[in-house]
């Protein structure tokens, strides 16, 4: 973990979150806590607001009301800590197509820590990209590009991981490898919040359920568990 967290019985807490898009309520009165050593899945149909909720938690979306707390205090007082301690991986791979997997991984971990190239190469081999470490990412398949982004997780020491569609485009073996990585992370005391249309084979998963956008009877109150 990057740094000791003060009174961290919960890392993130959302209270009475409400978000509208284009005049439609995506969710309202949504409250939950993200505590160390837990994995939480944000669930709901297409368009229900899963990505929007993750982006709110990551501080990447301003179009909402309610309050988000970081370690018990309003998050806006601690943006520096939030940036250092919360990792967000979006549903796009977020890698540069002209660069190789090795160059991308160098860029992804740079700024937080120095990792020698042989260790980065080992990580790429671990995610099944051994033969492609020096090939431009534009020449990789969708699943291989996703693996480049996920290799970043092998070096991620942030206590909170927010993962949007981490399993997209991955084959069965890669899904199982990511599930093991997430389980290890949670066992070490990390907190993972993820969206996925694939039902992960993970024990003790918490759930935040969002309703169908545009169907007012089902969106009035989304339910957050673990709060
Ligand atoms: N950039 C945008 N501008 C306007 N509306 C948007 C934008 N992005 C998303 N929306 C709307 O917000 C709603 C929620 O989108 P969001 O991507 O959070 O849903 P989701 O549950 O993650 O969907 P999916 O399962 O398809 O990934 C959708 O109805 C969508 O139309």
From TrEMBL:
One of its GO terms (molecular function) is transmembrane transporter activity. InterPro entries: AAA+_ATPase, ABC_transporter-like_ATP-bd, ABC_transporter-like_CS, ABC_transptr_haem_export_CcmA, P-loop_NTPase. Gene3D superfamilies: P-loop containing nucleotide triphosphate hydrolases. It holds the Pfam family ABC_tran. Residues 12-226 form the ABC transporter domain. The keyword Disulfide bond does not apply. Keywords: ATP-binding, Cytochrome c-type biogenesis, Membrane, Nucleotide-binding, Translocase, Transport. It comes from the Bacteria. One of its GO terms (biological process) is cytochrome complex assembly. PANTHER family: ABC TRANSPORTER I FAMILY MEMBER 1. This is Heme exporter protein A.
């Amino acid at each position: 973990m990057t740094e000791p967290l003060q009174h961290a019985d919960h890392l993130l807490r959302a209270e009475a979150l409400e978000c509208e898009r284009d005049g439609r309520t995506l969710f309202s009165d949504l409250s939950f806590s993200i505590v160390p050593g837990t994995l939480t899945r944000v669930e709901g149909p297409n368009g229900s607001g899963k990505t929007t909720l993750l982006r709110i938690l990551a501080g990447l979306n301003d179009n909402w009301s309610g309050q988000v707390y970081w370690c018990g205090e309003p998050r806006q007082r601690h943006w520096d800590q939030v940036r250092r301690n919360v990792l967000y991986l979006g549903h796009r791979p977020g890698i540069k197509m002209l660069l190789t997997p090795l160059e991308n991984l160098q860029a992804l971990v740079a700024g937080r820590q120095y990792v020698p190239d042989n260790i980065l190469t080992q990580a790429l081999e671990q995610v099944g990209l051994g033969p492609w470490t020096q090939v431009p990412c534009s020449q990789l398949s969708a699943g291989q590009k996703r693996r480049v982004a996920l290799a970043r997780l092998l070096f991620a020491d942030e206590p909170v991981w927010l993962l949007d569609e981490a399993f997209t485009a991955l084959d069965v073996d890669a899904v199982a490898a990511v599930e093991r990585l997430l389980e290890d992370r949670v066992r070490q005391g990390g907190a993972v919040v993820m969206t996925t249309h694939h039902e992960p084979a993970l024990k003790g998963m918490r759930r935040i359920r969002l309703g169908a956008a545009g169907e007012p009877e089902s969106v009035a109150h989304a339910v957050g568990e673990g709060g």
